[in-house]
Known about the structure:
Layout: E1 2-7, E2 10-18, E3 21-25, E4 30-41, E5 44-54, E6 59-70, E7 73-83, E8 89-98, E9 103-112, E10 117-126, E11 135-145, E12 149-159, E13 162-173, E14 181-182, E15 186-190, E16 194-206, E17 209-218, E18 222-232, E19 238-247, E20 266-278, E21 282-291, H1 296-299, H2 307-318, E22 330-340, E23 344-355, E24 366-379, E25 386-397, E26 404-414, E27 417-418, E28 423-437, E29 441-454, E30 457-462, E31 466-480, E32 500-515, E33 518-532, E34 543-552, E35 555-563, E36 570-580, E37 586-594, E38 598-608, E39 613-622, E40 627-638, E41 642-651, E42 654-663
Amino acid sequence: MNLFAQKNNIPQELIKIKADQIIYDEKNNTYQAQGRVSLDQGKRHIEADKIMVNLNTNQAKLKGNVFFKMDQDWIKAEAAEMDLNTYQGILYQAQVFMSENHIYIKGEKIEKTGEQTYLIEHAYLTTCDGKPPAWHFTAKKVKVTLQGWATASNITFWAKSMPLAYVPYLIIPAKKERQSGFLFPYFGHSSRDGVDFTLPFFWAIKPNMDVTLYQRYLSNRGWMEGLEYRYILNETDKGFFYFDYLNDDREDIDFTWDEFSRSNKKRWWWRSKQDHILPGNIYAQIDLDLVSDQDYIREFTEGFNSYRSCRKEFLHYFNRGFRTDEAALLRESSLSLTKNWSNYSLVAEAQYTQNLDKSQDEYTLQRLPQISFLRNDSRLFHTPLFFKLDTISTYFWRLEGIKGQRIHFAPSFSLPYKNKYFKLLPRFSFFETSYFLTEKEKSRFLYETSLEAKTDLWARFSLFGNFIHHFEPSIVYTFRPRVEQSGLPKFDGLDRLPELNQITYSFTNYFFREEGGKLKELMRFYINQSCNFDKKYHPLSDLLIEWQIKPLFGVFLDAETAISPYGDGFTEANIMFGFSTKRADYFNINYQYRPGETEDLATEVFVHLIHNWSLRLYNQHSFRYKQDIEKRVSLRYTAQCWGVEFVYADIYDDTKFMVIFSLNGIGEIKGISLSGG
């Protein structure tokens, strides 16, 4: 039967009723339906054993096997009373399912107070299928927003039929959009820190702005407070700020990974990044990385805002991480303003370097400021000549040692030529460098000429598909005369430009697979080496090799190495190699070597075991210190609606043990979006 409900003589949305028996009471303007009753109104669908509808008030009473469905969400109840215009009312002995995060909610009485809001008495909540569920919450009273949040009082957490925890008040996320409230806490224990517990509070100021407050308790150290502030105004205007503070109760008596002792008790770390477009299309970048002492970043490697987690966030949102690694004694901060035109750029920078070696801090150079005016290598007016210009003015400052201003002026002219066989690029450059020091002025002038010849070759072959090989050989001759420079200050490498009479050769190989008319790069292999004829001893430079294999049959490789041609082996290396299986098992190796700084080998294995169990093994060994820096074993169980991870870690001789619980539909709440979405 089709009918129009009316309220105040205004026609409302069409109601369709089907049932074994339908009785109309003309006097009271009511319909009573019994037996396999279904009611459809727009996108809403209702089923019950018995339904009575009053068309004057548009009120409905439902009894027996009540079922309400809207999109993918549904409600079941024994009885209900509701307004068919607003669908507000009361449900008795009801169960609600929210498809967004797969959450089930039950209650003896559920009052629908708004279009998507409920008040539930004697509630029950879980994301698990099956009976009994693996876990569930019970609460005396709960307020729920469909695809939103649930706030509850007098909550008990159950595993199967066993109560495990009681909380007087809790805010539970039930949608992807962000809401304020306590986040899932962090638990841990370590030999240095003792019991480690963090309870974060998340404040969603706006969809594109939030603050997280961290209260962290370390039983061997005291209370650590943390603050995180993030905003994203649009794609180009955004900022992330992190600050932690600890009044440390623990003395530095057993952290033996450096040559320095720590005497300070007040410990902190500030790190932040900001990007903005200012008026006049000036691009501003601010990077700050300041820390109280040399041990802080390496000691606090776990938790919400460790070096690794902050680096991951910075890379994701700003496409740049920290300028130095977590073990570096130099922490770098900078402010830059950039104005770009079609062929020119003007850059103003201030760079501050914090030296955590206090004995050397007063000699550390700061660039305050550095101003660069740059011209891209582009055609000079309507001539065949190309012109490039680098003009850099830097004021070097430090407490002790030589300081002053350096102006470097470097114009370059080139005359490119190409035909269908090869390309030639002759270039002439000269460098005028002036120094304005505290008591005297100095200058240096020199020139440089070069000639580059290169070509590229293409070949197609078929081997289990269509493949293309692209080969680019290149050879460059460079001449730079010898100039006396010993009397100049030495701020950086620009102050000592060596004489050159050398040939540099390089070979670049690309391998592509042709798929659907497009080329997919599979492999890149690059070799570069120079020979300086003015050097009597060791005229050959290190052999630079770069080799990249994109995931191919489960194997990937990303290697950058420098090898001595005189039998000294690697002089620098960063090699990452690994493979993965179709079921997402993987094995990775990462070797890093920098003379006098680091020589580490990191290995990682991840294996899916039986019955939802997985195992991750990680080890980072330092050949410099001749011992393991980090050892980590993680055993994880993942069920349909929950997971638990047991983690054992030994980091810088600090033994840690953590148990990390995750409840599906409960923990993923801290995303941030652009303004308005």
